[in-house]
Design brief:
Order of helices and strands: HHHHHHHHHHHHHH
CATH class: Mainly Alpha
CATH superfamily: MetI-like
Helix content: over 70%
Distance between the termini: 32 Å
Largest sheet: none
Radius of gyration: 22 Å
């Protein structure tokens, strides 16, 4: 009876996984279609839609903007999260839980509400009238969305590091900065990399905030995809989606390999 229940449980989990992966697989197969219209199953095989993605100037500009913004957000998010972890990580558990709860607030508010409120505030402060102020507002919004993940990852890693390492370095006469540089950062380096990868993906794939704050000269790749799909619904969109899905999957697998997803989200102490 127990073996039957276990087999049913495994079958259910595999079925749910396949169901969730099925849309992505359909999109990936469609991206190789030779037809100019999106259709499944595809008619023929062609890589022209990937070539179209890599040769159209508007896509390359949006890709460069999204990559640059995501890299800056990832570095800033990891830096701020590391600072918070070093200041709060060895404090009282109550204070640590409070900081973690505050960091999760951006995840509670619906993104569309956050984006519209930010647009109204930026417009009232006249921060959307030119390129650079709008870019700063957009980067700050992406930073706020990614911080909950990086703060949790960095604080979990620092809390898991034995305090004896710092105490031993302190006894030998090492200063605070030297302890952080030679002991703490190497010990939590995998967590910093994991947090940076998550922040990069969140910023790179953020459509709602980017749509509200987009300008003619400030269009990220997700917004460009939506605009292109309205006027030319061809498999180029499927090709771009496949590339982004492959990037996300590779990142998640790398994070799991380096740090462990269960440990990141507190499932394994």
């Amino acid at each position: 009876m127990r073996q039957l229940a276990r087999a049913a449980y495994i079958t259910l989990i595999v079925g749910i996984g396949l169901f969730l992966c099925l849309p992505t697989l359909v999109v990936a197969v469609t991206s190789f279609s030779a037809s100019a219209a999106i259709s499944f199953p595809p008619t023929g095989f062609s890589l022209s839609w990937y070539a179209n993605f890599l040769t159209r100037l508007e896509f390359l500009r949006s890709l460069l903007l999204s990559l640059s913004l995501a890299i800056i957000v990832a570095l800033t998010s990891v830096g701020l999260s590391t600072f918070v972890a070093l200041e709060i990580g060895r404090g009282s558990p109550r204070l640590r839980r409070l900081v973690e709860a505050i960091a999760l607030i951006p995840l509670i508010l619906p993104t569309i509400v956050f984006a519209s409120a930010l647009l109204l505030l930026a417009g009232r402060l006249q921060l959307t009238s030119s390129f650079l102020p709008t870019l700063i507002v957009l980067g700050g919004a992406h930073l706020m969305i990614s911080l909950p993940f990086t703060v949790r990852i960095c604080m979990s890693a620092y809390a898991a590091m034995p305090a004896a390492y710092e105490e031993a370095a302190n006894i030998t006469g090492a200063g605070s900065l030297l302890i952080i540089w030679r002991i703490v950062l190497p010990s939590i380096s995998s967590a910093l990399l994991a947090g940076g990868l998550f922040a990069f993906l969140i910023s790179f794939d953020e459509p709602v905030v980017s749509l509200f704050l987009s300008r003619q000269d400030l269009v990220t790749l997700p917004v460009q995809i939506q605009t292109y799909m309205r006027f030319r619904p061809d498999p180029t969109i499927a090709a771009i989606s496949t590339v982004m899905s492959a990037l996300s999957l590779t990142t998640v697998l790398a994070v799991d390999r380096l740090f462990g997803l269960a440990r990141i989200f507190g499932l394994n102490r």
